[in-house]
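Sanity check record (used in CI):
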Amino acid sequence: MTSMQAQVLLVEDEAAQREVLTYNLKAEGFAVRCAENGEEAMLMIAEAVPDLVILDWMMPRVSGLEVCRQIKTRDDTRHIPVIMLSARSEEVDTVRGLETGADDYVIKPYSLNELMARARTQLRRNRSGSVAILSFEDITLDAESHRASRNNQELKLGPTEFRLLARLMERPGRVFSREQLLDLVWGQDIFVESRTVDVHVGRLRKTLTRFGGSDPIRTVRGAGYALG
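Expected output for Phosphate regulon transcriptional regulatory protein PhoB:
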């Protein structure tokens, strides 16, 4: 069973920079996907929501500033930390980047060690900032009282289905593989067959649609499951 890797989306139009950053991010243990421009980045985010976006400001067609703005104005992506990279070193540029929604602003040229440290910090902050009550569309989950509801109707969930729903709700739109869900829900030290995930997802789907409404869990063929 593999450990959970943080998913980083790197958006950089310069091939040499993209190659160096990808190498170093992978060396840090991150799973990396790359986009060469802003349009491609938004398509990739729509397919699978990452844990962190590292984003160059100056790109053709759609700028990094606009990509950041779109990420931070959408309900399903506003939680994603964004590190903006830019050769613009004036204070007014830094302020503009941060006011657009960037969680950090790194001026080129930068230290790779420092950038990796900043990436780890953003991921740590984002994960430690989880809240007791989660919501997605008409679904609400209270981790403290261990209760969940949909459209104000209480959902009768077993402990495994409850943990599974909680993990999916923590990252709406994010595609989780079966191995990742096994690690997150059952734990890395317990051997469980991946087929078990399918069974519990089926049970969770049945409960979520018990009072009507569409199935909010999306199956991504060959990849796993996502909420929304």
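Residues 112-128 form the longest helix (17 residues). If this sentence no longer matches the regenerated tokens, the check is flagged for review.
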